[in-house]
Amino acid sequence: MRAIAYLRVSTEEQGDSRAGIDAQEETIRAEIAHRGWTLTDVRVDVASGKSLRKRDELGRTLRDLAAGEADVLVVAKLDRLSRSVMDFAAIMETAKGEGWSIVVLDMDVDMTTSMGELVANIMISLAQWERRVIGERTKAALAVVKSRGTPLGRRSNVDPETLRLIRILRDGGRSYQGIADALTREGVDTAQGGKWHAATVRKLYQVNA
Asked: From 56's CA, which of 11, 41, 45, 135 has a CA 20 to 30 Å away?
């Protein structure tokens, strides 16, 4: 079994990144040696765990796994790969579809075993259900916002349903820019007219969270 080790430290941890990286790598190397697998490479990102975006080494790793360059992705801790259950389930869904596996050592998630495959299927199903629920809530909230036609902008002028929609989208993993684009695309006006901006959405979300 050919394995790629993926390590991550956050930007806040960067000052002590070597210690954090060394600990993760030591744990992974020991487990791979115990299983008799071959470690083909070690990939490291210094990035936030809140999103899969801006993590170049993870992106390269996923592309290599898809291309058959390795059989399994190994991480020491789940939060090194993702802090979002939906993001993690999406990666597992990709792995299942492309024929490679994920092993998360601190959670005993191991897609190379039948039990691990069962756990992966459950998490994927739950994430799919959650995405459907979020989609339905988003659609309903957006319909209310559009029907009221309330000009929106500063906090005092923001309709509660629009704030609710922003919370739904953000809590569902959408970026601030993604939310701004969605509001603009669906014709939800700002107080000044024109497009929504990520900074405006961020401020509304943080103030009203």
From this structure: 135
Catalytically active residues are 10
- Tell me what the mean pLDDT of segment 104-111 comes to: 86
For the beta sheet containing 72-75, the strands, ordered from the edge strand earlier in sequence to the opposite edge, are 38-46, 2-9, 72-75, 101-104, 109-110
pLDDT digits (tens, 9 = 90+) for 187-198: 776 656 667 888
Report residue 32 as tokens.
């791979």
183 and 200 Cβ atoms separated by less than 8 Å: no
pTM listed for this prediction? 0.59
* Cα radius of gyration (the chain): 20
From 65, 100, 107, 99, select the one nearest 82 (Cα to Cα).
107
Q: Yes or no: say if 82 and 123 are a contact pair by the CB < 8 Å rule.
A: no
Domain assignments of the chain as residue spans, ordered by start = 2-112, 133-208
Which are the contacts of 113, defined by CB distance < 8 A and separation ≥ 6?
none
7 is written with which tokens? 């390590």
What is the distance between the terminal CA atoms of the chain, rounded to a whole angstrom?
Answer: 46
The residue type of 167 is: R
pLDDT in tens, 33-89: 999 999 999 999 887 655 566 688 988 999 999 999 999 999 998 888 887 776 787
Name the CATH superfamily housing domain 2-112: Resolvase, N-terminal catalytic domain (3.40.50.1390)
CA 161/CA 43 separation, integer angstroms: 43
Name the region of 69 (left: φ>0; alpha: ψ -120 to 50; beta: rest): alpha
